[in-house]
Amino acid sequence: MTGQPGEAMDVQAEYRKLPAVDAVLRSEQAAALAGVYGTAQVAAMLRELLEAARTAIGQGDAAPDPDSWPDRLAAQLEAAFQSTLRPLINATGVIVHTNLGRAPLSAAALDAVRRAAQGYSNLEYDLDQGSRGSRHDHARALLQAITGADDALVVNNNAGAVYLVLAALCAGREVVVSRGQLVEIGGGFRIPDVLRQSGARLVEVGTTNRTHGRDFAAALTPDTAAFLRVHSSNFRQIGFVAEPDLAELAQMMQAHRRSNGGPIVLIDDLGSGTLLDTQPYGLAREPMVQESLAAGADLVTFSGDKLLGGPQAGLIVGRRELVEQVRRHPMARALRVDKMTLAALEATLRSYQRGRALEEIPVWRMIAAPLVELQGRAEAWRAQLAADLPDGVGLAVWPGESAVGGGSLPGETLPTALLAVGCAAAESRAAALRRRRPPVICRIQRDHLLFDPRTVLPEEDAVLPAALRAVFATA
Ligand SMILES: *Cc1c(COP(=O)(O)O)cnc(C)c1O
């Protein structure tokens, strides 16, 4: 505290209130901190704090309370040793939020990761033969069973999957893509750039808004390696638009294969891809992996951590000889997945196999959450906070909309219930919520903070009112 006006502070007396380093380090609390952070870190942090206090006194501040040093030291060390990658509460209502870690894993997937990672595993070991096995065998049979594909390969992410498929099957030859599908997905992932990097030559057909089967047919040459269809991901074209049907492209390709015998393939990059139908939840139809294969795609690529609801991965499913060719490409090694990913992916796929995805996989639980349940949770938050927030802060439950995200179903929303907190300086309250441990991320609309229970895990339900109380207590 600075001195009262008219009352000169005794600066030397303030300096004398600063403790000696050794005196603080000898305290019981500092010894306990040294056990956690190491003696050198504790001593260095204490010197830093003392130096800052000396500077502050020089600028007219009072010395901190002499008894507060161990607590200040503990708080500072805890902050400094926080992980940079922090769990947080996603109250934005965007289910597959690319900036917030995409899909939360199921309990079974988390268990599987722990079991695979805490000791050794048969990642590349054949237990029957007692000899070297292949990591590619782990999720393969499950993906075959669930999607109906002949074969499957898992790589680091879907961007890697698209690149690898093009590099392995199309390098030096032509890949035909509709001009309506030469998309940028985000993070600089642009289909034309990836195509060039793979060594394939891009052949654009059609127009921005309309491309027909005949455009593809006209582009076929002896040098054609593939037709590539790309999910438009995070944007939607409306109005006078057309894209050829996958089945139409497949038929054209089969006819061409019969007459020319050339190795030409139909690749479908589904992006998110889904194994379950999105329509029963009032959403538009997101293309399903099984259907794409059934319609005649030779290879389908999709993400592990979008609508599948599993770990980050790129899944390649389709015809055996093609998948095998992709698997043998040297870059397959560079893009391979580790045991934790395989463990989480297998457990996630098992939920689908057992018909339990809606109950067990968080992304699907969120999509399928009934509106009445969301209203109940938002109401419960409102009721818990009703007596605790200062005057002038409004509390209400509003109807609103959640989004699926993850480059799927652009523009599609799910009806939800939002806790709306009306207050002045909403931006700075939101910033204070982000600084909480765990941070809480919400939406802001005019002077309201909006919290969507759909993306808040049920076990986090109590954290949200506590965070709001704390942020509004410091009025
Ligand atoms: C998201 C997406 C990708 C990239 O997938 P990642 O798993 O993020 O690497 C590729 N293609 C499409 C169409 C996508 O939507």
General description of the model:
The structure is a single chain. This protein is of the alpha/beta class and 475 residues long. The chain folds into three domains: 10-80, no CATH class; 89-96 and 365-473, Aspartate Aminotransferase, domain 1; 107-360, Aspartate Aminotransferase, domain 2 (3-Layer(aba) Sandwich). Helices cover 41% and strands 18% of the residues. The protein contains 20 helices and 18 strands. The protein has helices spanning 11-16, 21-25, 28-37, 39-58, 69-80, 107-118, 140-147, 158-170, 191-198, 213-219, 246-260, 289-294, 320-328, 330-334, 339-353, 357-360, 362-368, 371-385, 426-434, 463-473, and strands at residues 89-90, 94-96, 125-126, 131-132, 151-155, 174-178, 184-186, 189-190, 201-205, 224-230, 265-271, 299-303, 314-318, 394-405, 413-422, 440-441, 443-445, 448-451. The strands form five sheets. It has a seven-stranded mixed β-sheet with strand order 5-13-12-11-10-6-9, with helices on both faces. Helix 6 runs antiparallel to helix 15 (339-353) and helix 18 packs parallel to helix 20 (463-473). The mean pLDDT is 94. It binds pyridoxal-5'-phosphate (PLP). Pyridoxal-5'-phosphate binds at residues 157-159, 162, 185, 189, 230-231, 233, 269, 271-272, 303, 314, 407.
Distance between the termini: 20 Å
Question: So, CATH architecture of the largest domain?
Answer: 3-Layer(aba) Sandwich
How many helices? The count is 20
Ligands and ions found: pyridoxal-5'-phosphate
Model regions low in confidence, pLDDT < 50 over at least 5 residues: none
- Based on DSSP secondary structure assignment, what is the total number of beta strands? 18
The strands making up the biggest β-sheet line up spatially as 5-13-12-11-10-6-9
- The helix fraction, in percent, is 40-55%
Instruction: Write down the overall geometry.
Output: elongated
By helix and strand content, what is the structural category? alpha/beta
